[in-house]
Amino acid sequence: MTPRDGGTGRKDVSLPLGRPLPRKALAARFPERTVVTYDPRGLGRSTRKDGRVDHTPQTQADDVHAVIEALGAGPVEMFASSGGAVTALAVVAKYPADVTTLVAHEPPLITLMLDGPAAVRARAGVREAYEKRGGGAGMAAFVAMTSWRGEFTDAYFAQPEADPAAFGMPTEDDGSRDDPLLSDRSWAVSSYRPDADAIAAVPTRVVIAVGEESEDVLTGRTAVATTELLGQQVTVFPSHHGGFMDGEFGYAGKPDEFARRLRQVLDGAA
């Protein structure tokens, strides 16, 4: 770890959370910082040894704290996206001395929205499709949910089941039912309610980021709902929910523009 500001001891460490592989594109664009990434417990290359399969922000927050302590790197600057952003908000509330600035990008906190009950119903529909017809069907239902614009109205629930073939996904059922995104294993993440009072009381600068292309879709709306809970306004970033990704994994964003914006925010210039 490299001290900053003439050896004052502040470390330039960012911890992108939530997407085990695509985060590399963003990390590579910060050569002036020491960037630490990790696979959350039970995800990616991380194997659980406690026999559990659920994912909770509280447990993940404890793990992030343990990583920072083990590295002797704190306090750190932290960028976190999607479910990782939810974990990061839990870190700030419980371990405020660990983080100087948090940029939480599109935390999918669905119960904070005005149509939270309908969003919970839509989430259950994804799990139902997955349980009935497998991964392709579950992912197609997930894409349909996350790309829906506006509140989840009767029109959303009246749609026919999403066709995986229309999204270029396999139609065969591979038999697995343990996907953390499509099952109920991560519902504690999207149902989490940040401790707004605790976050308001800490010295950490918390920035809630939203992609310019995410307006009115699920994670854009949850980002706005999170800022309303915290008494803030969103900070707009380039691209979409995966805006920091390059073309190697999934739907490419604008990683160069995203990194420039993130650098501005971390440096307090925006």
How does this structure look, described?
The chain is α/β, with parallel strands linked by helices and 270 residues long. It has helices spanning 23-27, 57-71, 83-94, 116-133, 135-147, 154-157, 187-190, 196-201, 218-230, 255-266, and strands spanning 13-14, 34-35, 76-81, 99-105, 205-211, 235-237. Strand 1 (13-14), helix 1 (23-27) and strand 2 (34-35) form a beta-alpha-beta unit.
Q: Which stretches are poorly predicted, pLDDT < 50 over at least 5 residues?
A: 1-20
Instruction: Give the averaged pLDDT, no decimals.
Output: 90
The main β sheet shows up as: 4 strands, parallel
Q: What would you report as the Rg, rounded to the nearest angstrom? A: 18 Å
The 3D shape can be described as globular
Strand content: 5-15%
| Structure annotation, total helices | 10
What's the helix-strand series? EHEHEHEHHHHHEHEH
